[in-house]
Known about the structure:
201 residues
Amino acid sequence: MKNLYKINFSISHQGCWTSKIRDSVVTLNVSKYNNKKVRVTIASVKLIVTDLKRSENVYEILKYRKVKGGYVIDFLEDLSTTIAGYILSSNNVLEYRNIVREGIEKWEVTILAKSLIGKLSERFPIDNLVVKEIKFSDMFYNGLTEKEILALKTAIAMGYFNYPRQIKAKEIAEKLSISKQDFLYHLRKSIEKIISSLIIE
């Protein structure tokens, strides 16, 4: 039976379009275009089409759309020299997220084989590598314990997050047969873990 691992790393990828970007950009999707190219969809606060066109590994801007708060841009990049291409060509990558800030790519990747880390390190100059073995349930509940899940679900169901608040923490704690302090502790931990899972440091 294979283990699951979550790896976090950063990279300053010279020659890549990401090295030219100063604002925050989020990768929304990566898909294989053909044997040499990858189709990448990103979200950017600013229109960065000119920067993308100047990059060595961007072949073509396919389209871009203005959306509320920024732009969604589709373009083609090289399959063999990019992390996105590497991820697509690997059968052991289950999930990935990428945020670019100040020219630094920050990746979070869920993988099946630890050997992939060595291969990734050989191909790309990655920094700040953190490897963590995770449970299958962590993928569904962001690593929440049963008590944290119960506290969160009960708080939602009983209107704790409604405005105005429909129930007090003490009343929920009584329903769960725990102290108010324990309820608030588990609730805060659940929220902290969910928020942390959405942010790539």
